[in-house]
Amino acid sequence: MLQMSQPSKVKIIVAMPSYNTELFVGEVVSKAKKYVDQVVVIDDGSHDSSARAAKDAGALVVNHVTNQGYGEAIKSCFEVAKANKADILVILDSDGQHNPDEIPRLVAPILNEGADIVIGSRFLKSTQPVAMPAYRKFGINVITFLFNFGSRKRVSDAQSGFRAYSRRMFENVLLSEKGMGVSIETIAKARKRGAIFKEVPISCNYDSSTLTRKAIKHGLRVAFSVVRIRMKNLLG
User: Fold this and answer.
1) pLDDT per residue as tens digits for the range 145-174
2) Taking each helix axis from N to C terminus, what angle separates 134-148 and 213-235, rounded to the nearest 10 degrees?
């Protein structure tokens, strides 16, 4: 786990996957810069001006020539953290759902309690209630139940994309998932390595989205990924 005798020397990097988020990414970058040493945006083959907006706001931009998926973007976040010799990596969404002002809350358990991975949970008590669409809450609860089933080390929000990782995690956890299943793969492999988990409450902004066929397919894919990853870990 991360041990730093001089906290002022700890290097913290924020990395954000981005796909067509030009309306939001600049503001998210500007807010995040106040709390970390460097902000990196992984532009995953956007068709809009996301990369330009991120760069103008002061981020280092890593470009995927084509859209490769969320899993590949997260892998790039890990690679950037390693290449830039970060001590702590914070990952959050670039579409404005997450509040960069909560970054210190996620980093604190790594700095002060020896945590390896900190998950920003939408289901812990927070100063700002999360107005989550019912269908989304149901899907996340199902996926979290599947992840927790039969395990002593449980989490309240297995699908949260707002997380902080110690160097031990992003240097040693190797990822293979290409889609949203990477969120489960990361914590499943961390759990298998004996990582120290912490969760902290976060707020989250949602638009007035409604249930769509795409959302259903997404939820089913992630649920199947959870089962597959857990079976692989049990048999591996």
Assistant:
1) 888 887 788 899 998 999 999 999 999 999
2) 10
